[in-house]
Design goal:
The chain has about 220 residues and is mainly α. Helices cover about 80% and strands about 0% of the residues. The longest helix has about 40 residues, at about 5-45.
């Protein structure tokens, strides 16, 4: 195994890793925010809005991420939307992730005992306050595990961005392999980078779940 290749291509791999992190973090955060908004609208909006959002969820979940990426990057200019590869990658992540995040939030909302919500409404608490003070704290604890799992899935989906020339980690790895005619070292490095992301995300999700559970236990014991 030629370890000197890592010294030569190390800066390029780190640069690709940085772009992978950029697309993954911004795309995941944006998708989570949009998914939360969709979940709230699905719960509190009028029926026509729910139908439109339901169709959006089914459409995005029913089509592969690569096709959505191609349509946004190559089809966008026909509609006046011209994006750089990185911008297209981030936007595609936000669109692709939002329906899944919306369903995760929706399942968390439905897990809240209806009696709590009915009691809050009975004493005149507004819907926004019910969401902020009653539903959201409990929902975040309930959905921490599925949120973590989906964010991990998104971290590995970043490899698809190379097909539209986003200079992320897989793109740099393929360049390294093509220039050196070696494949074990580049893809070993690629595997280690993604393994590191998965382990780090899983550990962070576990710690968040533990802290949130402790917070709820202290709140319950004080009442």
């Amino acid at each position: 195994m030629e370890f000197d290749l890592f010294l030569r291509y190390g800066p390029d791999l780190l640069k690709g890793f940085g772009i992978t992190l950029l697309c993954w973090i911004i795309g995941s955060a944006g998708g989570a925010v949009l998914g939360f908004v969709i979940a709230c609208l699905m719960r509190w909006s009028a029926a026509p809005v729910r139908w439109v959002l339901g169709a959006y969820i089914e459409l995005i979940r029913g089509t592969p991420f690569m096709i959505q990426l191609f349509l946004l990057y190559y089809g966008g200019p026909y509609m006046g939307l011209v994006l750089t590869p990185v911008q297209a990658g981030i936007a595609s992540f936000i669109v692709y992730g939002s329906p899944y995040f919306a369903e995760i939030f929706r399942s968390g909302f439905q897990a809240i005992p209806p009696g709590q919500i009915e009691a809050a409404r009975a004493i005149g608490i507004s819907e926004f306050t019910i969401l902020r003070r009653i539903m959201l704290p409990q929902t975040l604890v309930l959905i921490t595990a599925p949120l973590t799992n989906f964010v991990i899935i998104l971290s590995k989906e970043t490899a698809i961005l190379s097909v539209v020339t986003v200079p992320e980690l897989l793109f740099q790895t393929q360049t390294m392999a093509a220039e050196t005619f070696t494949y074990v070292e580049p893809f070993l490095a690629l595997s280690l980078f993604y393994w590191f992301l998965v382990v780090l995300t899983a550990e962070l999700g576990r710690r968040i779940e533990i802290r949130a559970t402790r917070h709820l236990k202290r709140a319950a014991s004080s009442t």
